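EI: anyone free to look at a 185-residue chain?
SC: sure, send it
EI:
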Amino acid sequence: MSTFKFLFPSGTSMSRNLKDKYDNVNPRRAHTIMSAEDAASGRKSYWGELEITGSIRNVSPSLWQLTHLTSLYLNDNCLSRIPPDIAMLVNLRSLDLSKNKLRSLPAELGELINLRELLLSHNHLRVLPYELGKLFQLHVLGLQGNPLNKEILSLYGETNGTHKLLTYMLDSLTGKSFVETFFSR
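SC: here you go
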């Protein structure tokens, strides 16, 4: 069963079963979509975070049109691919694709230049697109539990591994050698 997780404003009526389902929302990701006063006044809702879980195999193409999103949590599903259209989510700062069945990632992920957190743990990834090297603001990169090639794992496992890995990927994308870049600093 699939779920969208939101924290509803107090006073919102819903069935007991539905209410119970939302009582255990992760507080880090719980947000009020709209206050009761705003809803009563006819205001439109604006929310920046969305979590979709529940063994989802595919997501609607309309998801990629939610360009206002700053955080997208698609973890704990059965996604086997992410379409290039993900690049339309230009405001994303946090993307969690962990615990899916991804074997590859679209190069277009490198266009999400506002990303600060990219969680890809526990998938089936062997390689990563070099375009990820363009994610200059990325501070957190979760890769644990993937059968990545030795070169990626070696760089990632070093001190400051995320930065070294992203530098290597950018250099590979531009044709510059990692050694050349690393020692020219």
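EI: Helices lie at 16-22, 36-40, 150-157, 161-174, 178-183.
SC: 👍
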